[in-house]
Amino acid sequence: MCFRPAEISMNKCPACGAVCKPNATECPACGAEMSIVMIDNEAQQARFAAEANAPKAPAAPAAPSPK
Question: How many domains does the structure of the chain reveal?
């Protein structure tokens, strides 16, 4: 059985740039209102997998050789 803990990331205050707790509704440093951002981990993981499996760009053609 695999257990993956919930993704927790700290928020930055948009006003002063202080690092705040993820569930903070206001910045403890300056009192600015914080928005709580929810991350959809499954969608993010699917996007990362799609980017990893995307076809690579073709290489540039070789320059013609002088005769």
Answer: 1
